[in-house]
Design goal:
By secondary structure, the chain is an alpha/beta fold. It has helices at 21-29, 49-59, 74-84, 103-114, 144-155, 170-175, 183-197; strands spanning 8-14, 36-42, 63-67, 89-92, 118-121, 123-126, 131-134, 166-169, 202-205. It is built from seven helices and nine strands, in the order E-H-E-H-E-H-E-H-E-E-E-H-E-H-H-E. A seven-stranded mixed β-sheet has the order 3-2-1-4-8-5-9, sandwiched between helices. Strands 6-7 form a two-stranded antiparallel ribbon.
């Protein structure tokens, strides 16, 4: 598997995100050099989101920007980005979120080690005056029965329903036609299927 470098695609569905989109994109570009792409799908923003991304794309050819002709919502916007994805692995970052430092280093090491098809990691929600954190290491074990129980438990938690705390092997999403349906809902179901039936290799990072 180490015959070539891993490549990553990060799809960002954006709407009125001029204040946060640069931070989201920087959290990718500051960690990766060549083998990546950031695909931003602007969902008819009313602010300067499109202009901000265009300025970034002029300086970095790995950043790509699309603009929907009409407002389609985040799910369909992610679908559009996924259809264009050229990376071996794809992740879906919200326009007001950002990846933690060294995430891609940890992702790469985990993929080489376990040949992972799906990689899940913790999420932290930040509020104005407080912070709530959920870490994948607090929930997962190596025992199949415990994993199944915890997977069901985690699906009840909003943080683990997010698309942003996972990377998926791109070809698996396409072969399973996941990109043709509402992506947020189906990615949650897909995560459970991988755990229940062990059809794919799932890894969990404590980041």
């Amino acid at each position: 598997m180490k015959s070539k470098s891993l490549s990553f695609t990060v799809v960002i569905a954006a709407w009125n995100a001029e204040k946060t989109i640069k931070t989201a994109i920087d959290s990718v570009t500051n960690q990766l050099i060549e083998t990546y792409e950031v695909i931003v799908v602007d969902d008819c923003s009313l602010d300067k989101t499109f202009e901000v991304v265009c300025q970034l794309a002029e300086k970095n050819q790995n950043i790509k920007i699309l603009k929907n002709k009409k407002n389609l919502g985040p799910s369909e916007s992610r679908n559009i980005g996924l259809k264009m994805a050229g990376g071996d692995y794809v992740g879906f970052l919200d326009a007001d979120d950002f990846y933690s430092e060294k995430l891609f280093m940890a992702l790469t090491a985990e993929i080489w080690k376990n040949k992972s098809d799906v990689i899940k990691f913790g999420v932290r929600e930040i509020y104005q005056d407080s912070r709530r954190e959920v870490s994948s290491s607090a929930f997962f074990s190596n025992r199949p029965n415990e994993i199944t129980e915890k997977a069901i438990e985690l699906e009840r938690l909003p943080l683990f329903g997010y698309a942003a705390n996972s990377f998926y092997k791109t070809e698996i999403l396409r072969k399973n036609k996941i990109f043709l349906i509402k992506i947020c809902v189906l990615l949650r179901i897909f995560s459970l299927i991988t755990l229940f039936f062990k059809k794919f290799r799932v890894s969990h990072l404590s980041i």
